[in-house]
Amino acid sequence: MAPRAPIGIFDSGIGGLTVANAIVNILPHETLFYFGDTAHVPYGGKSAETVIRYSHDIVSFLLDQGCKAIVVACNTASAAALASLRHTWPLVPIIGMEPAVKPASSATQTGVIGVLATRGTFSSERYANLVDRFGHGITVLENPCIGLVELIEAGLVEDAITENFLQQILTPMLDKGADTFVLGCTHYPLVRPLIERIIPPSATIIDPAPAVARQLQRRLQHLSLLSDQRTDDHRFFVSGDPHAFHTMAKRFFLADFLLEQHLIY
Length: 265
Ligand code: DGL
Prior knowledge:
It is built from 11 helices and 10 strands. By secondary structure, the protein is of the alpha/beta class. The protein has 2 domains: 7-97 and 209-261, Rossmann fold; 101-206, Rossmann fold. Helix 9 links the parallel strand 7 and strand 8 (204-206).
């Protein structure tokens, strides 16, 4: 596999752009091929089997495009499908993500953390193991934020409706003493400014995207797969409406890109 080959990255929709931005920040010589599965967003309420099927189809497509590595820029897909993706493609570096319970457990002063993720992530074995390992001696408050991904996909990231929604989720957590908040879904950093308006400035917000980008960098370095030069445009593929996605990607992705609609189902 050539170092200048693209990196494949996917999410159910625009959430993975928060991870793509973190990658572009530290690895400017890499080319990203991003797949947004907007025909099926949200993943959060779907069965693990369904999310596994979507994830396999997308990774298969990205590898057909010549990608040298895959970033699962979605906590829900990582929770459901990461093990089976790695099993199916053992030679491909596949980077996944998980809610940052571990760093949150070190950061909290009050011993209470709030985790915002999706139903799929919370009901996974991977998440249960995470809390088993790092949740000892602290209180882990969870909220699946049902409907938040849809608000974000609709572009309502600065709107009163979304702020009220977040208020309903965060206020009970603050009342119970939470001082550290884990953004356990890649869509949620897009409403970070609203979250910051609700929680006190002394509270900590943990977005794992920069850590995922660093992990990718380490893996590529280890495999001598880091690119020294970008030879292609970043390319975006979307299974749903390309126009809506284009508008959102222009708004949230830091770099220029080409967009294609791709129906893989
Ligand atoms: N952005 C995804 C995640 O990190 C999925 C959200 C969804 O589609 O429900 O979990």
